[in-house]
């Protein structure tokens, strides 16, 4: 049985609903990704390529090629990784993979939680024309990463390389420190949340 | 589910544990969990045929094989 944590979400019509963040990605989560998410992500990606070609730069669906089944198989009993799935009513709304063996750039030598991958269901993205089915899936998973950092003794420090379409969120919403494009990581921009910022984020979420 | 174990260390070993805990801001439990992760990571990579190197500031690499 997987450990789980209840989280509050909002439906497209504004009503509240409880979700659960489970530790571990189940076969059902993988089925949801491959059956329900993947075709929509491919469509998002194709649309983004067309828009970009027409001069309107668009990064939607940039994570369409992530092979979640392979990541789950690879992690197995490896303690360096933790994986999580956010579900509502048994349907997968978000997936996240964390690494626990990375170091901080803000405080060199200190440990942090590194968000290796974070993906939300295509119907929960801003690009969904009918409005997001559930929100805020991404921020709740990020908050869970910060909570994991605290519970592992890493003081709330979190780092990640952002896909281009998500960089604004990490920079402007979470105010993570930008370190610029990382040539050793496909030139994706690296961001880091300090211990003080992480603890502040959790305190604020507990007040709300 | 969490399980509890008792760990017997000699004085020097405990000094190292306490020193690392201070330096990293970790509890003893968090430190030992991190040690286990890192040890397993190294073992897994060596088992896959990979090698572990340290690189100094002159970019000279020395292979570490004794872990």
Structural commentary:
The complex is a heterodimer of chains A (208) and B (67). Chain A has 208 residues and is of the alpha+beta class. Chain A contains five helices and nine strands. Chain A has helices at 27-53, 68-75, 137-151, 167-173, 195-207; strands spanning 4-11, 16-23, 81-88, 91-103, 111-120, 134-135, 158-162, 177-182, 188-193. The longest helix of chain A has 27 residues, at 27-53. Chain A is globular. The mean pLDDT of chain A is 94. Chain B is mainly alpha-helical and 67 residues long. Chain B has helices at 11-24, 28-47, and strands at 52-55, 61-64. In chain B, strands 1-2 form a two-stranded antiparallel sheet. In chain B, β1 (52-55) and β2 form a beta hairpin. Classes of the chains: A alpha+beta (208), B mainly alpha (67). The A-B interface holds A 78-80, 100-101, 109-111, 152-153, 155 and B 23-27, 29-31, 33-34, 36-38, 40-41, 44.
Rough outline of chain B: extended
The CA-CA distance between the termini of chain A, in Å, is: 30 Å
What does the largest sheet of chain A look like? 9 strands, mixed
**Could you tell me the mean pLDDT of chain A?**
94
Beta strand count of chain B: 2
Largest beta-sheet characterization of chain B: 2 strands, antiparallel
Largest interface: A-B, 11 and 16 residues
